[in-house]
Amino acid sequence: MLRMLLSVTTLSFILASHALAAGTAPTEAQLKRGKLLFTQCQACHQLKPGAPSVLGPNLAGLMGRKAATVSGFRYSPALRKANLTWDATTLDKWLQRPAALVPGNTMAFAGLPKADDRASLIAWLAAETAAPKK
Q1: Number of neighbouring beta carbons within 10 Å of residue 101
Q2: Cα–Cα distance between 72 and 57 in angstroms, integer?
Q3: pTM, whole model, 2 decimals?
Q4: Which CATH number fits the domain 2-129, given the four candidates 2.40.50.140, 3.30.70.141, 1.10.760.10, 1.20.1260.10?
Q5: CA 61/CA 113 separation, integer angstroms
Q6: Measured at the alpha carbon of residue 17, what is the angle toward residues 12 and 22, in degrees to the nearest 5?
Q7: CB 123 within 8 A of CB 18
Q8: What is the tens place of the pLDDT at every residue in 116-127?
């Protein structure tokens, strides 16, 4: 039963990740859940372009950006050396447990254990942090 539950959870994340990668729009429920989950992040992160970094870097333009590159934010040496680019796959690993992806990073966040929650948050972040359409 546990193996089947893990398979369903893993499948849900894979489908959501493929939808993001393929440019398929996330569901309204997924975006709503992602927005709710972001309340855990907003004490440290801002989303608006040009807003100052707080305890964590500003997340505007997050998707496709190299990690540790927001000007004016002091990153840990571990994250600066990690050579990551933020995409759905990397964010999933980071949000699951930042310390596992980049040992020695200074982000004080234990992680989101549920794959569905991570997929929803990633979908919402991708939508919210995208460059404005001209």
Answers
A1: 19
A2: 9
A3: 0.80
A4: 1.10.760.10
A5: 25
A6: 125
A7: no
A8: 999 999 999 999
